[in-house]
Amino acid sequence: xxxxxxxxxxxxxxxxxxxxxxxxxxxxxxxxxxxxxxxxxxxxxxxxxxxxxxxxxxxxxxxxxxxxxxxxxxxxxxxxxxxxxxxxxxxxxxxxxxxxxxxxxxxxxxxxxxxxxxxxxxxxxxxxxxxxxxxxxxxxxxxxxxxxxxxxxxxxxxxxxxxxxxxxxxxxxxxxxxxxxxxxxxxxxxxxxxxxxxxxxxxxxxxxxxxxxxxxxxxxxxxxxxxxxxxxxxxxxxxxxxxxxxxxxxxxxxxxxxxxxxxxxxxxxxxxxxxxxxxxxxxxxxxxxxxxxxxxxxxxxxxxxxxxxxxxxxxxxxxxxxxxxxxxxxxxxxxx
Length: 336
Known about the structure:
It contains 13 helices and twelve strands. It has helices at residues 8-15, 19-26, 34-46, 53-60, 76-91, 105-117, 135-142, 166-179, 195-210, 230-240, 253-262, 267-271, 299-314; strands at residues 65-70, 95-100, 122-125, 147-150, 160-164, 185-189, 220-222, 247-250, 275-279, 293-297, 325-328, 330-333.
């Protein structure tokens, strides 16, 4: 028999196991011993066994596909989250299908309902900046659609959630700026609707309070689309140019790169000795100009954890779910 013709039943016969045991071993089921999993995986690798997803899906009434909904795939943070998701999905024999909303609530709903209509097994979502009505998501979840939210989460929706410790990240960013001698600290934020924007603003305020500094609303500028449109960052910078500040906290990946790009249009502002701390998962942060202190999120780990929770929920359908909120740390990396 040629290697590419091996079936699950063939492996079971050679190893003197039942087909169901081999199937569960290949899916890394907790019901199967580690020794049995090792034997099955070694033999499956030896004969180059590949599962037939169509046959398997028809038998189990599953598509073995996961939908991912993010605002922008090109965003450094989201691309790294997707890498984490795919690392788990591939190991579990799930395909992933990725869609982007470009921060549009209308597009977001279109993609979600499309995934549902195509019998996608579950969704991983980061909300768009325009989203405010979550009723359709709750309706789909009540009909049995597993959804795990990450990074940007909807309020008052019962689900698994994997998020960054945003309050602490913003708080520690302010403490760092104060240690650098800053006394008037500005903030460039994304949409007020987003959960992570709200948490970062709260942490920013708490950081100021801890240092006995006054919160000045004029020193906070908002970008409704989180830097997806450079024009909104340019407008924020034009307003900052009229203000007196010696440090700034940039609360998103696109906001950080967009801020640095916008500074080129305001050479006087660019020449000021302003300390910059900004969220970014870019691998090119060392060549940013001016230099910044990066707030790096656990993006890959976020994707892995979200995928694990989703697949666990998919494969335990019918059982009551104990929803979890996973809080991941950030790392401040000071410019050399």
